[in-house]
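Table S2 (text version). Query chain:
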Amino acid sequence: MLPGVYQAKKKNGTIYYRSNITYQNKHISLGSFETEQEAHEAYLEAEKVLKNPDISLEHKMFHPRTLNFEKVVSLINFRDNRIYIKTPIYLHAKYFSYYFSASEEYKFDIDDLFYYSSHKIIRRGGHLFVNEYGMQTNILSRYGIRNFAVAGRDYTFVNGDSTDYRYSNIIVINRYYGVTASVRNGKSCYEVRLHINGNYLIGVYDSEVTAAIAYNKAVDCAISHGIVKNYAENYIVDLSAKEYAEIYSELKLSKKFLQYLDEVGAVG
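Corresponding structure-token output:
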């Protein structure tokens, strides 16, 4: 067999070829190929990348031969930083880059290195996810941003770069379901809306936490009137059960919303 190549067989008996290389006492798999020659070319390309520090990451990602860009990122990071990471990560002094594709570079704090070195980022419906415990987890959840939050309304990127996921670059504006920060008469406040055949205004509150509890109360009222929807619940971790109950019981919801619920209940 050519250097760096060994033959393998699929369950159906089909022959294919795998390529690997050893560098700094690390055995690295380079992938599977249909022909022995392709596998050997992958080995030669990897050898060239690992032994020539003048070959830049940017050049190799956009001018690949046999290796895919993810493997190129892993090899060049290993060459430059002496750490082999299976996911397409390149380490910098105080952060790391995760290459979702050859032209898409995402930046993360070094504190997240362990997580993303073992979780590959995937895209679905315009959102970025990782597979975790058999489920797809939106990476925004690591910042306390709820599912289906809207950029610019519920959270924002300080430097305007939506690929910069360093913690200092993300500001969470609206942390809770149904709650939107607003300004009325020059004063900060929080509006609460619940979607039932349109968005109903539940009320306007001075506190974000109070607004979050008002949303929960509105959901409870809707369910008690026979409205069956899969509403999410706001979790308030900074309050005791007693404090939560006191705020909940004293909260006032809009008369228009309560009147609508009574009409729905009467029809039902």
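Notes on Table S2: The longest strand covers residues 15-23. The two ends are 76 Å apart (CA to CA).
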